[in-house]
Design brief:
alpha/beta, Nucleotidyltransferase, domain 5, six-stranded mixed sheet
Length: 398
């Protein structure tokens, strides 16, 4: 059977079609209706074939999901029929600590968490509803970004606020990008020729959303994102961690509403807010190289926040064996990796400049004699979702 994976972003839909046991999808791609192209685009990559791009009519997640399912269900496309569908869900709250088969009640519960992940859960629900209507009778599986962090030690999970908030309201550190962090933890062990046991990693998932995680023995110990994906590192449009007193001041003294603060922190901050150029790291980096002072400042803050998190998470682990860069920015920006690592030589982190400039995932870019390895890993969220979907689909059919 083929397993279809649907991964909803804020204004994109990534997809992959996997045969059981395969590491690479037979077909993969994405629908982008808010990218550099003037109109919506369907991008398709098939094994052994050149990438194909074509304009499409997608305007939102529902129309994008319908388009993808129709395209992949057409006869003669060269792979077996879709027999299960996996969905990436960012926030699982307290209700979901592992992947689950989707039922109407599960879909409602995921939708009820939309306030905690406003850039992700509503979009995922739209895709989920479209896919279950278009492909009825198939097992649909929800795979949660928060699951990898469900077992965080209480010292990491509990915020220093009134304890009743944790006990009675479920206020805790959930952590996100867990599918990516989980894959990279396993892949780092493979690249290093080690088992997860005893291996201490700091993994930096740097894309439009950013988070860092401390992983020991293959399990999460701490992470920068918290109750929502708004916490932690500076991101494309999200602020990351800020002094809560700023928000109280703006609300109490300046008359900001909760909705205005929500919009500012989620949509007008981060790289976009500081640079005034874009939320796209590549555009901010280009502007910085052209002499734009605010773009340069944005990149300095961005790197400083990552560097600070690496130091803190290394202390939590009591030492470090490898630092991992992954996701769009982490995998592709040699300048960013240099900027981050230049301030971490005291830890034993030393990049090889040539390897850093030329390497592509999966690679070790540390100096040969450095005590800490530095890896660039291509994150494989869709593969992890396909594996979980296959596991639960087989269990259902057993």
């Amino acid at each position: 059977m083929s397993i279809l994976v649907l991964n909803a972003g804020s204004s994109t839909l990534k997809f992959g079609l996997f045969e059981p046991g395969a590491r690479e999808p037979q077909v993969a791609g994405n629908v982008d209706w808010d990218g550099p192209a003037q109109s919506a685009e369907l991008i398709v990559r098939s094994l052994g074939e050149p990438e194909r791009r074509q304009p499409c009519e997608a305007t939102d997640h529902r129309s994008a999901a319908s388009l993808v399912i129709k395209a992949l269900s057409e006869p003669g496309r060269g792979s077996s029929p879709i027999r299960a569908v996996g969905h990436r869900i960012v926030h699982g709250g307290q209700a979901f600590v592992e992947s689950v088969l989707v039922t109407p009640d599960v879909a409602k519960a995921i939708a009820s968490l939309s306030d905690l992940a406003p850039l992700h859960n509503p979009q995922a629900v739209a895709v989920l509803e479209t896919a279950t209507a278009s492909l009825p009778g198939l097992p649909h599986v929800a795979v949660f970004d928060t699951s990898f962090f469900a077992g965080l030690p209480r010292s990491s999970a509990v915020f220093p606020v009134p304890f009743e908030w944790y006990k009675e309201r479920g206020i805790r550190r959930f952590g996100f990008h867990g599918i990516s962090h989980s894959y990279c933890a396993g892949r780092a062990a493979e690249v290093l020729g080690r088992t997860p046991e005893g291996l201490r990693l700091v993994i930096c998932h740097l894309g439009n959303g950013c988070s860092a995680a401390a992983v020991r023995d293959g399990r999460a110990v701490d992470t920068t994102m918290g109750y929502t994906p708004l916490d932690g590192l500076m991101m494309g449009t999200r602020a990351g961690a800020v002094d809560p007193g700023i928000l109280l001041h703006l609300q109490q003294r300046e008359g900001f509403t909760a909705q205005e603060l929500d919009h500012a922190l989620n949509h007008q901050s981060g790289l976009l807010g500081v640079s005034g150029v874009s939320s796209d790291f590549r555009k901010v980096e280009a502007a910085s190289l052209e002499g734009n002072d605010r773009a340069r400042l944005a990149l300095e803050i961005y790197a400083a926040r990552i560097r600070s998190a690496i130091g803190a998470l290394s202390a939590t682990l009591g030492g470090l064996d490898a630092l991992v860069f992954t996701a769009g920015v982490g995998e592709n920006s040699a300048r960013l990796r240099t900027s981050v690592c230049e301030g971490l030589r005291f830890l034993g982190i030393e990049l090889d400049p040539q390897l850093n400039a030329e390497a592509r995932p999966d690679a070790d870019i540390a100096q040969p004699g450095a005590s800490i390895r530095v890896l660039i890993l291509h994150t494989r969220e869709e593969l992890m979702i396909a594996r979980e979907t296959g596991r639960l689909a087989l269990k259902q059919n057993a």
